[in-house]
Amino acid sequence: MELIKKILFCLFLSFLMSCDGQNKKTSNERKVNQTDSIQKENETFILQKQLSKNKDNFKYFFPEFVYQLIPTESSLFDLSINENVYKIDLLLDSASINIWDLKKSKNHLILIEGNDYYGSVFYVYYYHNNVLTYYETFNHIAKEIEKSNGEKVFSIDLKGETLNISLSQNNKNSKYNLQPIKDISLLSIKDTVNTSELKEE
After folding, report:
1. Distances from the Cα of 116 to the Cα of 26, 65, 89, 92, 149, angstroms
2. Residue whose C-alpha is closest to residue 49's, from 39, 59, 37, 64
């Protein structure tokens, strides 16, 4: 009888230890998930390196995307993203045109810059889930440009729908808070059909 009691007691202890281990595992998994969630919320937009550009054709090459500004009949420009064309109707009359690509997770912030000597105008677009959203325009005045034409450094945060952009140049910082204006219409989609595989009827 005593032997049976000892066996039952040992089994009971093993059961308690197993439950405690499972609870700790579940708690640890919850902490990991919470940490991952916080890290995703705190992800920042990372500037993507421009690999090359074709100034004559307004074509800009990045690791994931090829952007191109396409002139229209009305002297405006549309935007091509990997040959998918969006109707942005952009008027560009600056001396130099740049495109900045900043990535957060799978989403991209696209800044089209009309750059002149004393400042720039930035047209801001947010590319997410194959949707292009226009996020206002802001003008940046280059301070102390006579002393130094320093590199532009961006710090960008998206809270809800508000896009907070901090732009530093020549140790001077400017901040801009932008709101979404509209989603941009997709004019044409890249034809991915391999014509060599099509059979004549």
Report:
1. 57, 25, 20, 11, 12
2. 64
- Percent helix, strand, coil in the chain (nearest 5)? 20, 45, 30
Angle ∠(109,65,185) on CA atoms, nearest 5: 65
Model pTM? 0.72
Cβ atoms of residues 66 and 79 within 8 Å: no
Q: Are 134 and 125 in contact (CB under 8 A)?
A: yes
**pLDDT surpassing 70 at residue 27:** no
pLDDT in tens, 90-102: 998 887 899 999 9
Q: Which residues contact 121 (CB under 8 A, 6 or more apart)?
A: 94, 113, 114, 137, 138, 139, 140
Cross-strand bridge partners of residue 157: 164
